[in-house]
Amino acid sequence: xxxxxxxxxxxxxxxxxxxxxxxxxxxxxxxxxxxxxxxxxxxxxxxxxxxxxxxxxxxxxxxxxxxxxxxxxxxxxxxxxxxxxxxxxxxxxxxxxxxxxxxxxxxxxxxxxxxxxxxxxxxxxxxxxxxxxxxxxxxxxxxxxxxxxxxxxxxxxxxxxxxxxxxxxxxxxxxxxxxxxxxxxxxxxxxxxxxxxxxxxxxxxxxxxxxxxxxxxxxxxxxxxxxxxxxxxxxxxxxxxxxxxxxxxxxxxxxxxxxxxxxxxxxxxxxxxxxxxxxxxxxxxxxxxxxxxxxxxxxxxxxxxxxxxxxxxxxxxxxxxxxxxxxxxxxxxxxxxxxxxxxxxxxxxxxxxxxxxxxxxxxxxxxxxxxxxxxxxxxxxxxxxxxxxxxxxxxxxxxxxxxxxxxxxxxxxxxxxxxxxxxxxxxxxxxx
Length: 432
Prior knowledge:
Blueprint: H1 2-50, E1 54-58, E2 71-75, H2 81-84, E3 90-97, E4 101-111, E5 115-118, E6 122-137, E7 140-141, E8 147-148, H3 150-154, E9 161-165, E10 168-169, H4 173-183, E11 188-194, E12 197-203, E13 206-207, E14 214-215, E15 218-234, E16 239-242, E17 258-272, E18 281-286, E19 293-299, E20 302-307, E21 315-318, E22 328-334, E23 342-351, E24 362-366, H5 369-375, E25 386-389, E26 392-401, E27 404-412, H6 413-431
């Protein structure tokens, strides 16, 4: 009886434990599998939002996203591969995560590999704004000793660009001051550009007790000058690209609207090293006042213009497409003394194909001991320094991390080249 009672209980208990084990294992496996699938789908959606819809592919090359092994490109076209090797043809590719989960369909256009002249040389910039930029407002003490600000009361804001006064186009601070003085106490009509919008405002000048003249209570700027680094030059059209970011007003941070500008020769005469919280800078000087080129565009992704001759020390180099850029060792070409550029070692830590921040396509870290000793890393004035990877121009330095000057951002050379070609086409059209 003892055996009869014990044995069934033992066997029955064993069966329950065994079934529970497989049941719990299946639940855990199902949960993990669901998390994996959902995670992969979410990651695919994220990649879809970050990756561009259109790419350029150099003739004869194989399409891939850098050295990313997770993203595989599969042709969705029925055309033979021979078509893909012909310049001008466009075909579709399916980007898939691990070759299984569809990320997005993209268009790929076959182009000739661009070959440009690598620079890395310093250049001086002299530019006159289109209109005058408001960099601040201030109070005026009137004849009754009251402190007033007519410009602020009329709605004029810091960063506005004054285009005209009473219908007369404004091109300088001197002209604006003279017009206000001439109008006296009569209200004047001012047209300003605020972002992409035009606004017409009415302002009543106030006579100041300080000089018995009329004022609006404005601080304005009508020109700028500085030194940057030229990235590359296109000998086919004589145009150049530099900086990799716009020239902005130091007070407002707004892009300075370009009316006209000149390029002059410059030389680096010293380096102020950077440190955490304190960016350094290249100290330069204009070599001569006579221009060597014209500035045509001050764009969010650099400055562009035309040179009268091939820049010094330039050398021919092929240009990489954005999807060819990958993490790994690179060199930057920059000038830290005189006018002759040098190569220094660096490393691309991260590449982003997203165009949300088109001047911050890669994170760059300076690794060259000599450059770290000399400048602490990236300093102001190095913007535009070319980045070379595996014998191709892949981008240019644009920004330094304020709290870590050994690191900074870079822009794809392809982004700058697209703007350069647009500027060249407009220049030729205007000349015609």
